[in-house]
Design a protein that fits this description.
By secondary structure, this protein is α+β, with helices and mostly antiparallel strands. Helices cover 18% and strands 44% of the residues. The longest helix is centred in the middle third of the chain and has 20 residues. It is globular, with a radius of gyration of 21 Å.
């Protein structure tokens, strides 16, 4: 199974491209499309609610294994730049830069755009991403794009197989009530393997649940491994007690205060003590105030763009996490909203 996010600015052609890659499924601030051919399954996620909100963008990127960054002939705009910053902070390894609407421009202009993109992304995770020009009108490049997605999917499958033996963990993105069944959630097996009848914990609310049954693409299965998109019927919990971002696991830590070893983006403003920022990890998010900043073992009042620091943050909402989780730091009041990323500080000072 390959799961791929299609992102870009509103006029990038991302939604049209996503619709050509599968059949429309769940619609909210993200829209999902599914395509099946034999044993091959492609799930495409369009961050529909972006750029009005950054949450759909972060959601789409955390639900998928690879990315199509769509850029139209008009070139890069503010939101394309923000997408590039987000991809870099999230460390997205697998992706393709898709030059959309190729039928509306000239080959020379496309070549110039490709060179511009290479220069801008040279110090980011996108530096080695392939580029391809496509048209959803004439279908130029579409078959080649699908082949490129298939090749990425094979690489991702190898990486996901290495996560099968880890403690099981499911990230929830949709929840609803089904008459006669009860609470049903949709989500991604982030790591490990889950089985029907497993007893686990819904976090961060810390409620013991049982997986009544598992479905993958409307087919009942007994288990699901890392990377699988699943529908789970749950016992011992009601749908009103579950929200997007909740985690089914037995190995989470829950807190609202964090000490993070952070890298501040070179494309943001400085971070200062007292700032109200917004933390994202997985599909969870919460506001948090900067209480303390340390650089080179010294307490400072601010951290400059491009610097590394230890941030002590005090929040108002519980978040469930494991030690390997990456936290994305944002400032929703700025034009470029992504501030940096961090991991849990292992030796708090």
């Amino acid at each position: 199974m390959t799961k791929i996010a299609v992102i870009g600015s509103e006029q990038s052609g991302r939604t049209t491209l996503a619709s050509k890659l599968g059949k429309k499924g769940n619609v909210s601030d993200i829209t999902m499309y599914d395509f099946e051919k034999g044993t091959s399954i492609l799930t495409t996620v369009d961050a529909t609610g972006y750029p009005k909100s950054i949450k759909p963008l972060i959601t789409a990127l955390n639900l998928t294994d690879a990315v199509l960054l769509c850029i139209p002939p008009a070139g890069l705009d503010t939101y394309t730049g923000e997408c590039i910053v987000a991809l870099d902070l999230l460390g997205c390894k697998h992706g393709i830069v898709v030059l959309t609407k190729s039928d509306t421009t000239y080959p020379n202009a496309l070549d110039e755009l490709k060179q511009t993109i290479k220069k801008i992304t040279t110090s980011t995770v996108l530096k080695d991403w392939d580029q391809i020009a496509i048209s959803t009108t004439t279908f130029e490049g579409m078959e080649e794009l699908k082949e490129m997605i298939t090749l990425i999917g094979k690489k991702v499958d190898v990486e996901l197989a290495q996560l099968d033996e880890l403690p099981p963990r499911v990230i929830i993105d949709h929840v609803f009530n089904v008459t006669g069944i009860g609470c049903v959630v949709l989500g991604i097996v982030d790591q490990g393997t889950i089985h029907a009848k497993d007893k686990m914990t819904m976090m961060p609310v810390e409620k013991t649940i049982e997986i009544r049954s598992i479905q993958m693409h409307d087919i009942n299965v007994k288990s699901a491994a890392a990377g699988a998109r699943v529908g789970l019927a749950l016992k011992n919990i009601q749908s009103k007690d579950v929200d997007r971002g909740y985690v089914i696991s037995n190995n989470e830590t829950v807190t609202m205060d964090f000490i993070l070893n952070c890298t501040i983006s070179q494309f943001t403003k400085q971070v200062a003590v007292g700032d109200i920022l917004h933390l994202f990890t997985g599909l969870q998010s919460a506001p948090a105030r900067v209480k303390k900043i340390m650089i080179n073992n010294e307490v400072v009042e601010y951290a400059r763009p491009g610097s590394e620091c230890i941030l002590t943050l005090s929040g108002s909402k519980n978040i469930a996490y494991i030690k390997s989780d990456r936290f994305i730091i944002t400032n929703l009041d700025e034009k470029q909203r992504f501030v940096g990323y961090g991991f849990l500080e292992q030796n708090p000072r």
